[in-house]
Design brief:
By secondary structure, the protein is an all-alpha fold. Helices cover about 60% and strands about 0% of the residues. Helix 3 packs antiparallel against helix 6, helix 4 runs antiparallel to helix 5 and helix 4 packs parallel to helix 6. The protein binds zinc ion.
């Protein structure tokens, strides 16, 4: 990488030129991990991430560049935006796992992929059972029973997330391992489903409190 201002070479992930101190733009195709100078990974030390976020955010904070030339102001804004996105995603275990899978070509946040149709049958049965039970509780206004279910679903979500992480560690160690990729995507589809289920129970609880 080379400084746009003084042409000094610097290491990837450098925010400020070591010679002239000008803010550098994010690399083309920079990942959220690149924003922290990290290789893609499943396990992130959160206190370290927080500290790096604070330090790096300060370095490129747009307020520091209000009198800089337009080009540098734009780079500062781009770096800040990337850092904020990266921090929000990487500090959250589930969001991080979805992102690692996305880096391997599978974006489960896209609804149009129809990921459900290649899901194992037992998962589809599980979804149907949960759905019927929750609808039943909702009709009867049985909030306690719904909350009890949520406790159980929350445990299932943790288990599925741990499974996804194990598969993603495999995938990162051996890229191109289709079995690990499929396993991670199935586990994360379950995580996504359970998360939505828990949000629905939350909404039920809020409604009950308001009513
Ligand atoms: Zn420079």
């Amino acid at each position: 990488m080379q400084c746009w201002n003084c042409h000094t070479d610097f290491a990837p992930g450098t925010l400020l030129c070591p010679r002239c101190g000008k803010v550098q733009p994010p690399a083309v195709g920079a990942t959220l991990f690149d924003a922290f100078g990290l290789a893609p990974r499943v396990d992130v030390d959160i206190p370290e991430l927080e500290q790096a976020y604070r330090e790096r955010s300060l370095q490129v904070h747009p307020d520091r560049y209000t009198t800089a030339q337009a080009r540098e102001r734009r780079f500062a804004l781009e770096q800040s935006t990337l850092l904020n996105d990266a921090y929000r995603t990487l500090k959250d275990r589930a969001a991080r796992a979805f992102y690692v899978l996305k880096l391997h070509g599978l974006d489960l946040s896209r609804e149009d992929l129809g990921t459900q149709k290649d899901m194992p049958l037992d998962f589809l049965e599980e979804v149907m059972q949960l759905r019927e039970a929750l609808d039943g509780h909702r009709e009867k206004g049985a909030l306690e029973a719904a909350l009890h279910m949520a406790g159980d679903v929350s445990v299932r979500r943790s288990t599925a997330l741990a499974e996804a992480e194990a598969a993603l560690r495999q995938l990162l160690a051996h890229p191109g391992q289709d079995a690990a990729r499929t396993e991670a995507s199935h586990a994360l589809a379950r995580v996504r489903y359970f998360t939505r289920f828990l949000e629905e129970v939350d909404a039920m609880e809020e409604e009950a409190l308001e009513g």
